[in-house]
Amino acid sequence: MTMDPTIHSVRAGRSVRPGAVAKSRGGARRTASLIAGGAALAMLMLAGCGGAPTAPQAPTASPPIGTAPAPPSAGSTAEESSPDARALQPPTSQREIEVKRATESPALVTGVRFAGHPGFDRVVIDLRHAVPGYSVRWVDEFVQDGSGKIIKTRGKAYLQVALSPANAHTETGDSTWTGGPVYPTGLTNVLNVVRIGDFEAVVGVGLALNRRAGFRVFSQSSPDRLVIDVAH
Protein backbone atom coordinates (compact mmCIF):
# COMPACT_ATOMS: atom_id res chain seq x y z
CA MET A 1 0.00 0.00 0.00
CA THR A 2 1.30 3.39 -1.07
CA MET A 3 1.42 6.10 1.62
CA ASP A 4 1.65 9.93 1.26
CA PRO A 5 4.92 11.42 2.32
CA THR A 6 4.61 13.30 5.63
CA ILE A 7 6.32 16.21 7.37
CA HIS A 8 6.96 15.72 11.05
CA SER A 9 6.41 18.55 13.52
CA VAL A 10 9.10 18.27 16.16
CA ARG A 11 7.30 20.46 18.72
CA ALA A 12 3.84 18.97 18.33
CA GLY A 13 5.10 15.40 17.91
CA ARG A 14 2.65 14.69 15.10
CA SER A 15 2.57 14.50 11.30
CA VAL A 16 1.27 17.29 9.06
CA ARG A 17 0.41 16.97 5.43
CA PRO A 18 2.10 19.39 2.98
CA GLY A 19 -1.25 20.60 1.72
CA ALA A 20 -2.32 21.44 5.21
CA VAL A 21 0.86 23.49 5.70
CA ALA A 22 0.16 25.48 2.56
CA LYS A 23 -3.38 26.15 3.62
CA SER A 24 -2.22 27.26 7.04
CA ARG A 25 0.31 29.67 5.56
CA GLY A 26 -2.26 31.15 3.22
CA GLY A 27 -4.70 31.69 6.06
CA ALA A 28 -2.02 33.43 8.14
CA ARG A 29 -1.28 35.81 5.29
CA ARG A 30 -4.96 36.70 4.94
CA THR A 31 -5.27 37.23 8.71
CA ALA A 32 -2.23 39.53 8.78
CA SER A 33 -3.64 41.54 5.87
CA LEU A 34 -6.97 41.96 7.64
CA ILE A 35 -5.25 43.11 10.85
CA ALA A 36 -3.12 45.64 8.98
CA GLY A 37 -6.13 46.99 7.11
CA GLY A 38 -8.15 47.30 10.31
CA ALA A 39 -5.35 49.22 12.03
CA ALA A 40 -5.07 51.65 9.11
CA LEU A 41 -8.85 52.20 9.11
CA ALA A 42 -8.82 52.87 12.87
CA MET A 43 -6.07 55.47 12.44
CA LEU A 44 -8.05 57.23 9.69
CA MET A 45 -11.17 57.30 11.88
CA LEU A 46 -9.22 58.80 14.79
CA ALA A 47 -7.71 61.45 12.55
CA GLY A 48 -11.15 62.41 11.28
CA CYS A 49 -12.66 62.74 14.74
CA GLY A 50 -10.39 65.53 15.97
CA GLY A 51 -7.45 67.71 15.05
CA ALA A 52 -4.18 68.13 16.81
CA PRO A 53 -4.43 68.56 20.60
CA THR A 54 -4.59 72.18 21.71
CA ALA A 55 -1.94 73.57 24.05
CA PRO A 56 -3.19 74.44 27.55
CA GLN A 57 -3.95 78.13 27.99
CA ALA A 58 -2.10 80.11 30.64
CA PRO A 59 -4.37 81.33 33.45
CA THR A 60 -5.34 84.99 33.24
CA ALA A 61 -4.23 87.22 36.08
CA SER A 62 -7.00 88.35 38.44
CA PRO A 63 -7.15 92.04 39.38
CA PRO A 64 -6.12 92.84 42.93
CA ILE A 65 -8.99 92.97 45.37
CA GLY A 66 -9.69 95.75 47.67
CA THR A 67 -7.72 98.46 45.90
CA ALA A 68 -9.06 102.05 46.19
CA PRO A 69 -8.21 105.53 44.90
CA ALA A 70 -5.19 107.28 46.37
CA PRO A 71 -5.66 109.80 49.19
CA PRO A 72 -4.49 113.38 48.82
CA SER A 73 -1.04 114.31 49.97
CA ALA A 74 -1.07 116.31 53.18
CA GLY A 75 -1.17 120.04 52.53
CA SER A 76 -3.25 119.78 49.36
CA THR A 77 -6.74 121.24 49.06
CA ALA A 78 -7.85 118.31 46.89
CA GLU A 79 -8.99 115.01 48.36
CA GLU A 80 -10.13 111.54 47.39
CA SER A 81 -13.06 109.52 48.69
CA SER A 82 -10.87 106.74 50.10
CA PRO A 83 -7.19 105.80 50.47
CA ASP A 84 -5.20 103.12 48.72
CA ALA A 85 -2.24 101.07 49.94
CA ARG A 86 -0.18 104.23 50.33
CA ALA A 87 -2.51 105.29 53.16
CA LEU A 88 -1.08 102.40 55.17
CA GLN A 89 2.31 104.13 55.17
CA PRO A 90 3.12 106.81 57.77
CA PRO A 91 2.42 110.33 56.45
CA THR A 92 5.32 112.75 56.08
CA SER A 93 3.95 116.21 55.21
CA GLN A 94 3.24 118.74 57.97
CA ARG A 95 1.57 121.30 55.70
CA GLU A 96 -1.75 122.72 56.84
CA ILE A 97 -4.90 121.81 54.90
CA GLU A 98 -8.08 123.68 54.00
CA VAL A 99 -10.97 122.21 51.98
CA LYS A 100 -14.01 124.36 51.19
CA ARG A 101 -17.24 122.61 50.38
CA ALA A 102 -20.89 123.63 50.12
CA THR A 103 -23.44 121.18 51.50
CA GLU A 104 -27.25 121.19 51.58
CA SER A 105 -27.32 120.88 55.37
CA PRO A 106 -24.69 120.97 58.14
CA ALA A 107 -23.01 117.68 58.94
CA LEU A 108 -23.72 116.21 62.36
CA VAL A 109 -20.72 114.99 64.38
CA THR A 110 -21.80 111.84 66.24
CA GLY A 111 -18.48 110.84 67.80
CA VAL A 112 -14.73 110.49 67.44
CA ARG A 113 -12.77 107.22 67.35
CA PHE A 114 -9.03 106.57 67.42
CA ALA A 115 -6.64 103.63 67.02
CA GLY A 116 -2.96 102.90 66.56
CA HIS A 117 -1.44 101.51 63.35
CA PRO A 118 2.14 100.56 62.44
CA GLY A 119 3.91 103.89 62.05
CA PHE A 120 0.93 106.20 62.66
CA ASP A 121 -2.14 106.94 64.79
CA ARG A 122 -5.58 107.32 63.23
CA VAL A 123 -8.44 109.56 64.39
CA VAL A 124 -11.87 109.15 62.78
CA ILE A 125 -14.61 111.79 63.10
CA ASP A 126 -17.96 110.07 62.52
CA LEU A 127 -20.58 112.16 60.72
CA ARG A 128 -24.21 112.07 59.72
CA HIS A 129 -24.80 113.62 56.29
CA ALA A 130 -22.06 114.43 53.80
CA VAL A 131 -18.56 115.43 54.88
CA PRO A 132 -18.44 119.26 55.03
CA GLY A 133 -15.55 121.61 54.42
CA TYR A 134 -12.70 121.44 56.91
CA SER A 135 -9.33 122.86 57.86
CA VAL A 136 -6.39 121.31 59.71
CA ARG A 137 -3.72 123.61 61.15
CA TRP A 138 -1.07 123.84 63.83
CA VAL A 139 -1.88 125.93 66.92
CA ASP A 140 -0.02 126.86 70.10
CA GLU A 141 -2.91 125.81 72.35
CA PHE A 142 -6.56 124.83 72.21
CA VAL A 143 -9.03 127.67 72.83
CA GLN A 144 -12.68 126.80 73.46
CA ASP A 145 -14.99 128.22 70.82
CA GLY A 146 -17.43 130.80 72.16
CA SER A 147 -15.94 131.28 75.63
CA GLY A 148 -12.31 131.78 74.61
CA LYS A 149 -11.08 129.68 77.52
CA ILE A 150 -7.83 127.76 77.12
CA ILE A 151 -8.28 123.99 77.30
CA LYS A 152 -5.32 122.54 79.17
CA THR A 153 -4.14 119.16 77.97
CA ARG A 154 -0.92 117.18 77.92
CA GLY A 155 1.06 117.50 74.71
CA LYS A 156 4.04 119.10 72.97
CA ALA A 157 2.36 119.91 69.64
CA TYR A 158 -1.26 120.72 68.81
CA LEU A 159 -3.21 120.01 65.64
CA GLN A 160 -6.67 121.59 65.33
CA VAL A 161 -9.42 120.35 63.00
CA ALA A 162 -12.42 122.59 62.21
CA LEU A 163 -15.46 121.27 60.30
CA SER A 164 -17.93 123.71 58.70
CA PRO A 165 -20.84 123.73 58.26
CA ALA A 166 -21.26 121.20 61.04
CA ASN A 167 -22.92 120.75 64.41
CA ALA A 168 -22.43 118.42 67.35
CA HIS A 169 -25.98 118.83 68.69
CA THR A 170 -29.53 118.14 67.56
CA GLU A 171 -32.16 120.76 66.73
CA THR A 172 -33.38 120.51 70.33
CA GLY A 173 -29.89 121.24 71.67
CA ASP A 174 -28.96 117.73 72.78
CA SER A 175 -25.27 116.95 72.32
CA THR A 176 -24.46 114.21 69.81
CA TRP A 177 -20.80 114.00 70.86
CA THR A 178 -20.78 113.54 74.60
CA GLY A 179 -18.07 113.37 77.25
CA GLY A 180 -14.76 115.15 77.29
CA PRO A 181 -13.73 117.73 76.57
CA VAL A 182 -10.43 115.78 76.79
CA TYR A 183 -10.36 112.13 75.69
CA PRO A 184 -7.13 110.22 76.52
CA THR A 185 -6.18 107.81 73.74
CA GLY A 186 -3.26 105.71 74.99
CA LEU A 187 -1.66 106.02 71.54
CA THR A 188 1.96 106.64 70.59
CA ASN A 189 1.79 110.22 69.27
CA VAL A 190 -1.84 111.35 69.55
CA LEU A 191 -2.04 111.58 73.33
CA ASN A 192 -5.47 113.22 73.66
CA VAL A 193 -8.44 114.09 71.47
CA VAL A 194 -10.08 117.35 72.55
CA ARG A 195 -13.61 118.62 71.90
CA ILE A 196 -12.80 122.28 71.28
CA GLY A 197 -16.25 123.55 70.49
CA ASP A 198 -19.61 123.43 68.74
CA PHE A 199 -20.36 127.03 67.88
CA GLU A 200 -21.99 128.82 64.92
CA ALA A 201 -21.98 125.77 62.62
CA VAL A 202 -18.31 125.04 63.32
CA VAL A 203 -17.18 121.93 65.23
CA GLY A 204 -13.61 121.98 66.54
CA VAL A 205 -11.56 118.85 67.26
CA GLY A 206 -8.05 119.03 68.73
CA LEU A 207 -5.27 116.45 68.58
CA ALA A 208 -2.68 116.84 71.36
CA LEU A 209 0.54 115.22 70.16
CA ASN A 210 3.66 113.94 71.81
CA ARG A 211 5.65 115.54 68.99
CA ARG A 212 5.03 117.46 65.78
CA ALA A 213 4.86 114.99 62.89
CA GLY A 214 3.52 114.44 59.39
CA PHE A 215 -0.21 113.98 58.89
CA ARG A 216 -2.78 113.35 56.16
CA VAL A 217 -6.54 113.86 55.92
CA PHE A 218 -9.12 112.16 53.73
CA SER A 219 -12.86 111.51 53.76
CA GLN A 220 -14.79 108.27 53.38
CA SER A 221 -18.44 107.40 52.89
CA SER A 222 -20.91 104.68 53.93
CA PRO A 223 -20.80 105.84 56.66
CA ASP A 224 -19.54 109.39 56.19
CA ARG A 225 -16.42 110.21 58.18
CA LEU A 226 -13.26 112.31 58.16
CA VAL A 227 -9.98 110.49 58.80
CA ILE A 228 -6.79 112.07 60.18
CA ASP A 229 -3.58 110.03 60.29
CA VAL A 230 -0.62 111.31 62.32
CA ALA A 231 2.83 109.72 62.08
CA HIS A 232 4.50 108.41 65.22
UniProtKB/TrEMBL annotation:
Residues 108-232 form the AMIN-like domain. Residues 53-80 have a biased composition (Low complexity). Residues 1-29, 53-102 are annotated as: Disordered. Pfam families: AMIN-like. This is AMIN-like domain-containing protein. It comes from Sinosporangium album.
